[in-house]
Amino acid sequence: MTMTYTGAVLDAPDARELAAFYRRLLGWTTEEDSEQWVVLCDPAGTARLSFQTEPGYRRPVWPGRPGEQLMMAHLDIEVDDLAAEVARAVEAGAEVADFQPQEQVRVCFDPAGHPFCLYVREN
User: Fold this and answer.
1) Could you tell me the pTM of the whole model?
2) Rounded to whole angstroms, how far apart are CA atoms 9 and 102?
3) How far, CA to CA in Å, does 62 sit from each of 22, 29, 59?
4) What confidence tens digit (pLDDT) does each residue in 23-63 have?
5) Average pLDDT of span 78-107
6) What domains lie within the chain, and their CATH numbers?
7) Long-range contact set of residues 57-60: C-beta below 8 Å, sequence gap at least 24
């Protein structure tokens, strides 16, 4: 038996809208595109990020609060210049979280409210 991990899927109220944000952010290309399902692929063709339209989608709350929709997962994106990439993410449609738990990490929210982290690797 062979298994190959190919990527993650993010639910959203509008798959195409969220995919457009990540296309701007990551510079990846569209591999599949329909109203309910969009797949982006990295330039090397080895990683994918998919988006699924979910009419009942509820925006997660971060940091978590009892009784609220909790974050189930988040994306980590390594960058060389944290300040420049945070500015670029905001220009693409991201929002910077008020709470920042680490100096070399910036938690942001995509347009559907999924948290993602931009970070600089510490040597």
Assistant:
1) 0.90
2) 26
3) 20, 29, 10
4) 999 999 999 999 999 999 999 998 999 999 999 999 998 88
5) 96
6) 1-56 (3.30.720.120), 58-123 (3.10.180.10)
7) 57/11, 57/12, 57/13, 57/112, 59/112, 59/113, 60/113, 60/114, 60/115
